[in-house]
Amino acid sequence: MSDQAATDTPGLPLPLSGQTRLYAILGDPIAQVGSPRLFNTAFRRRGAQAVLVPFHVAPEELPAIVAAFRAGLNFDGLVVTVPHKIAIAGLVDELGSMARRVGAVNVIRKDGTGRLIGDNFDGVGFVYGLRKRGHSLAGKRVLIIGAGGAGCAVSHAILDEKPAALRIFDTDEDRLGGLIGGLRAFAGGIAVESGPPDPVGFDVVVNCTSIGMKTSDPYPIRIDDLKASTLVVDIILKPAVTPLLEEAARRECAVHAGVHMLEGQVEAVCDFFGITA
Amino acid sequence: MSDQAATDTPGLPLPLSGQTRLYAILGDPIAQVGSPRLFNTAFRRRGAQAVLVPFHVAPEELPAIVAAFRAGLNFDGLVVTVPHKIAIAGLVDELGSMARRVGAVNVIRKDGTGRLIGDNFDGVGFVYGLRKRGHSLAGKRVLIIGAGGAGCAVSHAILDEKPAALRIFDTDEDRLGGLIGGLRAFAGGIAVESGPPDPVGFDVVVNCTSIGMKTSDPYPIRIDDLKASTLVVDIILKPAVTPLLEEAARRECAVHAGVHMLEGQVEAVCDFFGITA
């Protein structure tokens, strides 16, 4: 019948009532985010009386939103995206181990007493998304563009996959230095260095910046040096095919779009939220 | 097909995405509210990429929620219920005419510049709900229990229906006196008085308090004097049949449940929100 048939519609939660539990994704901009579609589908599949809504908030208003999250007695969790992932880490009460390691938060839940627990599933989701598409990072040379919240999360998770080497590029030297230092604390024998956005000699290139959300953006790497043997990865969700991915495909590179990183973490984040199947 | 078939399921919005516009109902408690079911059905019927979620908030946290409402750039409207309808009137930027008249707000929208416009559709919804069930108030003697936000809204709207007389009961003498004074300013020749919760001589009795949400509550009127010729109305949504309505039906009175008041205003509030069919 109709209600059962609707299960197949992406983005559809169970029918709402006064007992529906509330989740939100915070971002600026917000229209491009895939979380409402993916999480509401997952909530419904798990039979949860819950909904995840998009919440468009400017950086300066983040404390007001976190205050409302604390005050909302049926408001159980947040997903956090660009540009709030770093700033919001300072507004929660406790950080999980991956969030502490990367200094960025992309999920927040409440514990039994209402304290806010932040953690980061971006890196886990990124690696899981690659694995699901058959890509292994072990023994590979990896170039990461961007040392912000996503760049941190992705590079720490990649490090745990035992690549041969990691290079990070960022125009912000302080941020870059901080990340390199943090990575080296967990690197074992793996070479971690900073360097230019030059893909020569790398097996995998990952764009962890927002460069490519607009079609007028430049390429985030030195595109002229890109070889077909390099796997090109973008974490941008919208457009699904960024100028970087489009040009990489034209050069016959394997490509991997941003949606896989998000899809890779939905089930793990549902578990984190305590929404059981 | 599946998506179209789902239209018939109460409480189901269109599938959510990053472009979904956000609405919320504020209340304490919240689990009993009917608005998420009714408004999401209406939003979907109107083809609106919008969702209305329940938001459980304690009175002392109301300013924090209004701040988050102002900050949410895709957060377009609020429905407000017990016990916040009076307090929230002081937190908006402008009141519509009915909200000014009753001193209570049950809906808030943003204007083009982000200013918050509060108004009150409770009374309009109440009268419309009665009319839809065939009940006229013209020339009737009406007893209203409760001079709070809902009692104000309902009595002002009833007054505009030209009853023969209105009596209001409330245990709070100040609140009662304020309402009586306000009603008399709009009464013309209609007798408006305060008095005991005694149904003798009244054609219609309306419970506008929350007495009856718990089965252990006393009756809000002197139940022993209730005659079968009196129409008994309750505005409580949950339970749908309050102890008052149950006892009134047992005494063979006509009864009218709270849901009709809410159903009566959904379409008008969608228009107020700018969600066109």
Topology, pairings included?
2 copies of one chain form a homodimer.
Chain A: H1 2-5, E1 21-27, H2 35-45, E2 50-56, H3 62-71, E3 75-80, E4 94-95, H4 97-102, E5 107-110, E6 116-119, H5 122-132, E7 141-145, H6 149-159, E8 165-169, H7 173-184, E9 191-194, E10 204-207, E11 231-234, H8 243-250, E12 255-256, H9 259-272
Parallel strand pairs in A: 1-2, 1-3, 4-6, 7-8, 7-10, 8-9, 10-11, 11-12
Antiparallel strand pairs in A: 3-5, 5-6
Helix pairs in contact in A: 2-9, 5-6, 5-9
Overall description:
Two copies of one chain form a homodimer. Chain A is an alpha/beta fold. Chain A folds into two domains: 2-120, Leucine Dehydrogenase, chain A, domain 1 (Rossmann fold, 3-Layer(aba) Sandwich), CATH 3.40.50.10860; 123-261, NAD(P)-binding Rossmann-like Domain (Rossmann fold), CATH 3.40.50.720. The first copy, chain A, contains nine helices and twelve strands. In chain A, strands 2-1-3-5-6-4 form a six-stranded mixed sheet, with helices on both faces. In chain A, helix 7 links the parallel strand 8 (165-169) and strand 9. In chain A, helix 2 packs across helix 9, helix 5 (122-132) crosses helix 6 (149-159) and helix 5 (122-132) packs across helix 9. The model of chain A is unreliable at 1-5 (pLDDT under 50). At the A-B interface, helix 1, strand 1, helix 2, strand 2 and helix 3 of A face helix 1, strand 1, helix 2, strand 2 and helix 3 of B.
